[in-house]
Amino acid sequence: MILRTTTALVLFAFAVPAFAVGVKGNATAGAEKAKTCASCHGPTGNESLDDTYPKLAGQHPEYLAKALHDYKSGARPNAIMAGFASGLSDEDINDLSAFFASQKGDLHDLSNIKER
């Protein structure tokens, strides 16, 4: 019994970091870095000047980070965003993601929809 418990605890200790994936950015630093983004997405990521530009405020930080990494690598093609993302470091991406995720937005999911 003790051996099983010990084995389970050891396995759990190694498994937790694998599931603890998240963006660890600095939202305050991201606010300064986001000034370039404001020209298209607005100062908080809510006020896009063009309806074709996505709202970034309130979006999940992991999604934002993945999108920026994909623009940077070319996996997500967009000439405008590739130009901006190409100069971003991993720290820049994490900070920007933390900033926009921390902004109040009107994004919503379907978790509050009642079944009919």
What do you see in this structure?
It is a single chain. The protein has a domain at about 25-100: Cytochrome Bc1 Complex, Chain D, domain 2 (Orthogonal Bundle), CATH 1.10.760.10. About 55% of the residues lie in helices and about 0% in strands. It has helices spanning about 1-20, 25-35, 40, 60-75, 80-85, 90-100. α2 (about 25-35) crosses α6 and α4 (about 60-75) runs antiparallel to α6 (about 90-100). The radius of gyration is 19 Å and the shape is globular. Residues about 5-20 have low confidence and may be disordered.
Which helices and strands occur, and which strands form pairs?
Elements: H1 2-19, H2 27-33, H3 38-41, H4 61-73, H5 79-85, H6 90-102
Helix pairs in contact: 2-6, 4-5, 4-6
How far apart are the termini? 49 Å
Q: In the CATH hierarchy, what is the architecture of the domain at 23-102 at level 2?
A: Orthogonal Bundle
Number of helices: 6
* CATH fold description of the domain at 23-102: Cytochrome Bc1 Complex, Chain D, domain 2
Structural class: mainly alpha
* Radius of gyration over C-alpha positions, nearest whole angstrom: 19 Å
Portion of residues in beta strands equals under 5%
Provide the succession of SSEs: HHHHHH
How many DSSP-defined strands? 0
* Average pLDDT for all residues: 84
Q: What is the CATH H-level superfamily of the domain at 23-102?
A: Cytochrome c-like domain
